Here is the input.
Amino acid sequence: MRDIPKPYEHRLQPGQVVNLDQITTRGKDLHPDRSEAEAEFKALRKELREWQYKLYAEDKQKLLIVLQAMDAGGKDSTIRRVFQGVNPQGVQITSFKVPSSKERAHDFLWRIHNAVPGKGMIGVFNRSHYEDVLVVRVDELVPTAVWQARYELINDFEKMLAQTGTRILKFCLHISLGEQKERLQARLDDPTKNWKFELGDLEKRQQWPQYRAAYNDALTYCNTPNAPWYVIPADQKWYRNLAISRILVQTLRDMNPQTPPVSLDLSQITIE
Ligand code: ATP
Here is the structure.
């Protein structure tokens, strides 16, 4: 088993007042060698598959991974690359879109709670309840007092999940304005990516400072020991994949799931 350097790299400090402008988006400044990083990532991905197999077999613990990012921040490709080859039966991925009328008829955490992983499962949220203090705040979809009260409600909810056996990791994929421009441009230029382009993404790009402020507050107010935030430099996908895999594998090593003990004496069993 390989040693992973700095296991809790990119984890926000407890009580840290976050200013994303002061946190680098450039993974390439943090790692000297891309091919070395890719080799380590592949080894970690293999280890992740082994741990997931045990987590599923053990059927006791739960792992929730929350992914948040600005548009084109790489949530989809993180899921595709990091979980490549993992047994799909043991991973439940939920993408949270604009709430339906049925979802809006309930409290904002109703649809979230319904999607958290059960025993033996890894749950991945592509967007999450944090949208309710991000887009909802920036677009003024509810009165200020309503979204402001949500930080505490989110902390209480995540505390409840943690206390009832869910390990929580929250990743903010941190890209620069320049990198977002390139990725959105690629959606215009590359016919295979045209389908991803939405005019609404340009509107949100105009609101970058407002989103920045909303992210800073969400990361500051909802960074708890039970549900820590990691800000992942995500301009270089190869670094992002490595950083997230390191944290995932380190967490699973710590959870240390084991295949269940066998109660039968298997040596006495003959299959005719
Ligand atoms: P990509 O990030 O790959 O471009 P996407 O995540 O934007 O894809 P879409 O279906 O285009 O996928 O977007 C989902 C939309 O739903 C986002 O604009 C997001 O802000 C919005 N959304 C999610 N949760 C909420 C919420 N609670 N209230 C209002 N809007 C929400």
